[in-house]
Known about the structure:
CATH topology: TIM Barrel
Low-confidence stretches: 216-221
Bound molecules: 3-phosphoglyceric acid
Shape: globular
Order of helices and strands: HEHEHEHEHEEHEHEHEHH
CATH architecture: Alpha-Beta Barrel
Amino acid sequence: MSTELVPWVVDRLAALRMVPVVVIDDAAHADRLADALLDGGIACAEITLRTPAGLAAIRRLSHRGDILVGAGTIVNPDDVDAAVDAGAEFLVSPGFGIEVARRARARGVALLPGVATASELQAAVAAGISSVKLFPAEALGGIVMLDALGGPFPQARFMPSGGITLEKAGGYLDHPAVFAVGGSWIAPRAQIAAGDFRAITESAARTVAILEIGVSRVDRS
Length: 221
Ligand code: 3PG
């Protein structure tokens, strides 16, 4: 396989810098969730397939055009098809699987596979993927792990997630090999389920301000 597939998605994620990882229990909440994120200045979301509502939520958001929508928890080739059919513009996996990578390539969609070891990163790079998710970032040692993997794999670019808080996100974003950070603190599952979208907007706005990620409000007129 050749080099990076669908590089514009990685470029866009690199511009956005922060990817809210979302677990949604009711697809009817999807639009208000997107509004809440956008009102706080964040124009993307990774909707995980950990719940049955995930695909329907992706379907709703992919029609809007004002928010970049990805699918998370892609663990097999059927998930790739389901997420792409629902309109996901990028896919995120917790780990690396060659069948998932092959299906993503066949469907022409960007896949950010999870890596937790040098072996997994080596397999991803061999499959032509050098932009990956470092997962679970904090449990792996965080920045220290990024530095260690960056030695043998200078071409690798990372989206760390797993255990990252707002307090720690800035340190990751300062790392030259990090293009974006993922995390669930902006839109926690319980707040979405409770319909507390005001809290999500506040959290997004606080994240944008503290990380100085400079994402301006999206013009939705
Ligand atoms: C992920 O899938 O990226 C993580 O579950 C997000 O991790 P967090 O909930 O610790 O932010």
